[in-house]
């Protein structure tokens, strides 16, 4: 195994062009597990840790440009207002040590349905900035996940950053695991209200071959909120609407039975999380909420 | 110099010895471990060493048709590839009690992960790659997975032709050992019962999950022997199993304990010991082997999963009438400690209760599942989960408080066990329950108490942010358990301690040398405390544990403080007698008390029991060194009768009670244990800080079994599905509740200092207490651990 250590982004792109089988590594959250388990023995590891710009972020007018290697800890500490859903999701990633090293680029590169960042990115709306020696392109997050642990990257491309819409409304993230910390998702749910466009977006993790949105649920809820004048009135969402939304969210799942949980449980848990996160985000929208409760204290 | 005696005059009075028993002296390795600087066996290193690697079976049951090592041998950097054919002597199996475990598979593999071949290479990656080039042709065989498939008439036999000392009395060759216990007349007593409760319970396969993986270093010696540096629980048991396979006399296999990263029973069996020695002797080079976490799950035995059928009866006024039970333990492919686990499960199946009329049967099976053996609680854990569930159900049937019902039936000193053995030391079962019940309950809704927003850390799901209080219901549950201490059933359970006393740089110094494996239990601290108390010195050196001194027995069965601690005490007492003999010889003419008083060593001085100082130890000893190595035994036990189970089988019992307070997210099936209060009788706390640490650790391990820890074995293939810490979950600090501990010290007059072995009892009652609390919160029966979200949500 050769270890490539480019000193700059340009060098990294050149190395990836020269060795398309090279596996990029930054925090190593997923890559090192795969190597340790002998699931994969890449010919080349492409170490991106010397490319400092990958650890930078910029808060723009509309979007946050989040470098691929910005560690989860920094997202939690610095981008809670702009990216509340992702900040909550970041909090559930592994242990403090791993959160200090791992970033969203790794989650996207692995494209595992269990990656904690995906539901938050899907719900917030994001574009993945990828580059190669051939140039740069922006892949909408909705088109990014193409199959089990597969993404839309070409062999010579690297993930440089993610452009995530700044939150215009409440966002939530919830994840089920059978331990109270440091646990891989049995399933996860992200929800973002977008009052500016009067839309809602969702993201579901670990309950389908790829991270998915529950589009029917989103459309149903957006229509229900619109038709009932809820955005203006800020009235409580009726339980029947929340229930229907939750059931549609579960309908978007295509889970499996595995050692972490049964398919039936995953569907059920998504229902519960969808209902609860809707309650939390809507309460916050109405001005009662304390949506990201408790988490400031845990940082 | 010896003839120049000083007259003991101008003696300073006062003779306190600091750091003796009863004090919370600190661990010598504590800071190093906390800061990550402690050297574990995986940190061993030797110039020019090779790395060993084990090729393991991908199948649970298969015939090995052929093994081709030629390609592996050709790889550059490979020094040796060994298979069964390379074993040097006729001894090709090992085992704790029954030698049924092949050093390397021969013609057949019996469980997933069984060692098939070994490679030594100059780099671990080279060894791994070479192992991948070994071509093994397997023909899969049908798997034996449970009692039905193990005892079917046409069941494949795991060990055809077995002729061990249990094979004669078992009802099927796939049963390792069977222990019935019959006392009184359960059928007749049954007719007196107003209520009868029966149930079937199941305990999943728990792993010890020690943090330091199996590892060690074997260094070939010039005399043809080998020096093995190893993390184990019992050096001399290893030695007894290793030497015959290597074809070496035991004195040529010199073993030294290396840094042990936890054990919990999982290091009682051999792992890489023989393999590393074989490779070292073959290559003439030092060989290091370190399992990674994945391999570690295949490298040691686990806790026996169990199915338990129980029937209890009680009268309307709450007195138990009888108990019938049948306990089926899955021992997996090899015997390991299964026979002794059967002995414990059967003899402790009644729990700490008075029931005179019982019918008990416990068996362990041979199957193609992973081998199971020793783990903290050892057969008593499984039984405790079942009988405590029964107690709650009986209390509910009788409309009695579950604690009061237990207290009504609690055993006490003098109670006769189902084995016919009377309990001849304090058994404060009712009192322990009273104490945990009397502790104040934690406040309600603690997630709200911190401020205006919910603190998710205090809620089920924790940081995963699954509830802010929705669906959360509190439950409270109680349990109490009984565990035997020390090796039972007639085992000659002795320990050896060598103690030396001499003057170094003008100060008396004691040196304690035992082969006790320090696996984290705190023996190194306790031995020094005992030496200080008995010899009145401040400076105590604890020598590294090795096989240059006699056996200290196993660091298991809650026995080390009792037995090796007892041996250290005994050797210290013998050394003290020698000191006093010298003192009398030198100084008796100066003070009549030398001849008449009870003399002690305290604070570096010889003192009378009245506290008068007679001499400085330095003056008594001068340049003499007193050096004694002695064996020490606890009182003997006897085997259980094979048909009736009667026999004075146990040395001592240990009791703990728990109260669990849980919050359950009843919609998502997630559990947060808020508090696990424990009360335990420890006889005498030699080191109170260590005692509380053991109780908290055991409590947490029991919590793990209650709600998350299980090795999942595919019922169709007997393959392990979750050999990693990603999917085998153990409690994090956020899963670990507040654990208030109430320590009782009721002396056992048969034991050194009155102490009681403490390491295991808290692991027993923790699990059923947590599950009882979840039952109270959910109203569900929950007859299986670990409890999964699916069980709570019906999904």
From TrEMBL, chain A:
Assigned keywords, A-Z: FAD, Flavoprotein, Oxidoreductase
Signal peptide start and end residues: none
InterPro entries assigned: CO_DH_flav_C (IPR005107), CO_DH_flav_C_dom_sf (IPR036683), Diverse_Substr_Oxidored (IPR051312), FAD-bd_PCMH (IPR016166), FAD-bd_PCMH-like_sf (IPR036318), FAD-bd_PCMH_sub1 (IPR016167), FAD-bd_PCMH_sub2 (IPR016169), Mopterin_DH_FAD-bd (IPR002346)
Domain FAD-binding PCMH-type: 1-169
Keyword match Transit peptide: no
Origin: domain of life: Bacteria
UniProt-listed PANTHER family: XANTHINE DEHYDROGENASE SUBUNIT C-RELATED
Protein name (Swiss-Prot/TrEMBL): FAD binding domain-containing protein
UniProtKB/TrEMBL annotation, chain B:
Residue ranges of the region described as Disordered: 1-29
Residues in coiled coil: none
PANTHER family linked to this entry: XANTHINE DEHYDROGENASE, XANTHINE DEHYDROGENASE SUBUNIT D-RELATED
Polar residues composition-biased segments: 1-16
Entry-linked Pfam families: Ald_Xan_dh_C, MoCoBD_1, MoCoBD_2
SUPFAM superfamilies: CO dehydrogenase molybdoprotein N-domain-like (SSF54665), Molybdenum cofactor-binding domain (SSF56003)
Stated name of the protein: Xanthine dehydrogenase subunit D
Native organism: Streptomyces pathocidini
Domain called Aldehyde oxidase/xanthine dehydrogenase a/b hammerhead: residue spans: 35-142
